[in-house]
Amino acid sequence: MPVVNFLKPETKANLQRVLKEHEHPDIRERALIFLLLNDGNTQAQVAQTIGCSLRKVAYWSVHGDPDSLDSLKEERMNGNYRKATPEYIKKLLEVVEKEPQDYGYEFGRWPGGRLATYLAEVTGISLSGTQVMRILKSKKYCYLWAKYSLEDKRDSKKREAFKLKLEEYLRSSKESPDKLQVWFWDESGFSLQVIRRKVITRKGTRRMVRGDKRKGRVNVMGGIRYSDKKRLVDFLPVGNGEHFYSVLKVFYQEIQYEWAGESKNIEDFEKDGPKIVIILDNASIHKKKDILDKIEKEMPNIKLEFLPAYSPDFNLIELVWHSAKEFIANRLFKSIEELEELLNRLLNEGDLIIKWGRKLKGKGGAVNAI
User: Fold this and answer.
1) Best label site of 29, 122, 217, 295, fewest CB within 10 Å?
2) CA–CA separation, 100 vs 297, rounded Å?
3) Domains, the chain
4) 310 phi-psi bin (left φ>0, alpha ψ -120 to 50, beta other)
């Protein structure tokens, strides 16, 4: 026989208040179960009266404690995650700006799940990785490829001094292009291996590009003039000091012929022609003493200005190489000749359209191309 009036008067009054006032319907239902059982109803009768399963009534009559309201709650009532407090969010923003190694971890980046795990340890609030990323998104964070940084190897004083010198060269070349030309010089390579780039594709799918290994490479060397963005690029079997000299020799002759035109004598170029400042990096092929001596003797109008160490962001031609590789991305070339023919059209014949206002990707955009 069911036990009648097993509830204490104060417990019964508390359950009646919960039945009337509690905001959660499941808590009100569990309070009603105990009140009906207290009136002498069997579990089956209670289930029929409430309209729930007998199993539910049996479970809460055993696991619920009418004297403790907390016992009538279950874990899912807390939601799928606990709420992030302002202190939690402050700590999250502090942690995400530092490296995992700063906190004793061996991994190198912070995915959402690892952030959630660490913050659960230090704050006691357990969120999912998805919720952590949602909080970061609301704070204007996003998940992007990291960039390589050379800042720790750079000499800031040398960079600042070079920047001032470069700005003066560029100003003078704009004001008096007949007296001074500034060229940015470099080498690059293009492989037959497909260059993979991000593409627009339907959500949930991934565009496929050829991934087979293919041997073959086209090496290019040349420069771009700052004033009018004219490009002179040559192809070479391998980059070395002798090829640097030979390409520069052809370049010098092209500038002479351009200057002379139909009205000037090419022999007067060294006296009346413009000075040519070439900005280039510190590659060993650019700094061999015998090559530098030959350039100084045979091409006196040329002045080589070497970039500070680890400063490719000052070299405008980096944007040309990047734009060319972006243009041919995801394409499969049948032969070296096919790739070289396209590169010649892009680099020398003007087919490559470059957005000069953009930054040099991954290099900071220190040179103003406009």
Assistant:
1) 122
2) 55
3) 9-78 (no CATH), 86-138 (no CATH), 155-347 (3.30.420.10)
4) left
> What amino acid occupies position 104?
G
pTM for the full predicted model? 0.63
Share of the chain above pLDDT 90, in %: 50
What does the block give as tokens for 107? 């991994």
* 3-state class (DSSP) for residue 184: strand
**What is the rounded average pLDDT of the residues 242-246?**
93
Q: What is the pLDDT of residue 364?
A: 45
Encode 309-339: b = buried (16+ Cβ within 10 Å), e = exposed: ebbbbbbbbbbbbbbbeebbeeeebeebeeb
What angle is formed at CA 123 by the lines to CA 119 and CA 128, rounded to 5 degrees?
45
Query: The tokens of 243 are what?
Result: 């090829």
Residue 56 has pLDDT above 70, yes or no: yes
User: What is the distance between the alpha carbons of residues 289 and 58, in angstroms, rounded to a whole number?
Assistant: 94
